[in-house]
Design goal:
single chain; alpha/beta; Aspartate Aminotransferase, domain 2; Aspartate Aminotransferase, domain 1; 2 domains; 3-stranded antiparallel beta sheet; about 40% helix; binds ligand T4K
């Protein structure tokens, strides 16, 4: 039998008329946004630390309870600047189970990302694996709060302190999330957020670094603006990492509807959990509801041996019904270039990364998804696993 024929689409299984994507932007109020853009036109001030960027930075710092928030053009540049400002060089330990930007931000500036394995349960850096990867060339660690679930922050901080390493968090997924009642944004030497269009909170493209370290914040501010300290006075090597006013206008507008987005995300998350409960071989990524959480990512692990269907096949079935499920993070950075060529044997040290990148899938969530859609998606998955009964 040909591969396509095996994925039989039952006539009673719902198919969406239009594609339902993972990562549809959560848009704020259009009129509020346009009013801000109107003011921006009146001021004729478009970028370079304008009033909207300053307002956004202040609001974010307050919300996260952190001394400094520096808005930047995206999280990839934010990671690059933070690594440079902290003086990272040689080797830095990162997970491979992340978006490739985490590794690229280092390699781009000649720092070697060394991949450590993840904890099977939390899907974030395994501190024991981190410890094993440390060499005399190691200068730092970047943990990733994957799906907004916090890393093992206490254990990583203990390693960083004991081994004299800098600790950065890639908090691209974790805006609005907390750990031990403290907002993400306050841990390590610095944390980096992404405000990309696909994120829970967006500024079209954008990002931010948060830190309680005054000196580091000052350095990052200089570095994101070519190293300028006042007119005509360059005191550092720098780049252009600035956020524009129109992006900040979007951010300020989206901030106003954040609670509503969380409510929708949480409602959808609970509907998915309920709708897919009890299916053999399907394990949800669950959130600790005692903490603050953005519930943006709906993630399931598919255990083929028990479910009777592989993750890839299930994603194919979903696609055939216009549900554009994603294989984040497949295949793992260590299997992408240039890392695959640099470290051809790294998979041997990353068993949990290997397994999870083969078994995890993300489903649509956000304000463009309603409970009716979630119900239909669950129906498609139930049929794919249990058969067309
Ligand atoms: N660290 C981590 C852990 C990250 O996840 C990311 C970014 C970064 C660092 C770097 O942050 P930034 O430098 O981007 O600020 C997407 C995003 O582009 C990327 O930001 C994100 N992670 C990653 C997980 O997802 P792709 O290549 O999968 O994007 P793409 O174009 O396939 O879009 C995803 C889906 O979103 C599409 O199926 C359609 C939908 N979409 C997308 C856009 C842009 C829309 O409906 N409307 C839109 O405007 O990377």
């Amino acid at each position: 039998m040909k591969e396509e024929e095996k994925i039989s689409v039952s006539p009673v299984t719902p198919t969406f008329p239009e594609k339902l994507h993972v990562g549809r932007p959560n848009l704020g109020d259009r009129d509020r946004f346009l009013a801000r853009v109107g003011d921006m036109f009146d001021r004729n001030w478009l970028t370079n630390n304008g009033p909207l960027v300053q307002e956004l930075e202040q609001k974010l710092a307050e919300m996260l309870g952190v001394r400094h928030c520096i808005a930047l053009c995206n999280a990839t540049i934010a990671l690059e600047i933070t690594a440079r400002a902290l003086g990272l060089h040689g080797e830095v330990i990162v997970p491979s189970f992340t978006f490739v930007a985490t590794a690229h931000s280092l390699q781009w500036q000649g720092i070697t990302p060394v991949f450590a394995d993840i904890d099977r349960k939390t899907q974030t850096l395994d501190p024991a694996s981190v410890e094993r990867m440390i060499t005399p060339r190691t200068t730092g660690i970047i943990g990733v709060h994957v799906w907004g679930r916090p890393c093992h922050v206490e254990a990583l901080q203990e390693i960083a302190d004991r081994r004299n390493l800098k600790l950065i968090y890639d908090a691209a997924h974790a805006f609005g999330c907390s750990h031990g009642g403290k907002m993400i944004g306050r841990f390590g030497n610095a944390e980096v957020f992404s405000f990309h269009a696909t994120k829970f909170f967006n500024t079209f493209e954008g990002g931010a670094v948060t830190t309680n370290d005054d000196e580091l914040a000052e350095k990052i501010r200089l570095m994101k603006n070519f190293g300028f300290s006042g007119y005509d006075n360059v005191i550092y090597i720098g780049t252009n990492g600035k956020m524009t006013e129109i992006c900040a206008a979007m951010g300020l507008t989206c901030l106003e509807s954040l609670d509503n987005v969380i409510e929708i995300n949480r409602r959808n998350y609970r509907s998915y959990i309920q709708g897919l409960a009890g299916l053999p071989g399907l394990h949800p990524v669950v959130y600790d509801e005692a903490e603050k959480c953005n519930f943006q990512y709906i993630v399931f692990e598919v255990d083929e041996a028990v479910a009777g269907i592989s993750r890839d096949k299930l994603v194919e079935v979903l696609h055939s019904h216009n549900v554009m499920a994603r294989r984040y993070f497949y295949p793992g950075c260590h299997r992408m270039e240039p890392y695959r060529s640099y470290f051809p044997h790294s998979h041997l040290l990353l068993p949990n990364t290997e397994r999870l990148s083969e078994t995890v899938m993300s489903l649509p969530n956000g304000t463009s998804v309603g409970v009716t859609e979630v119900g239909k998606i669950c129906q498609i998955i139930r049929r794919a696993i249990l058969g067309n009964v």
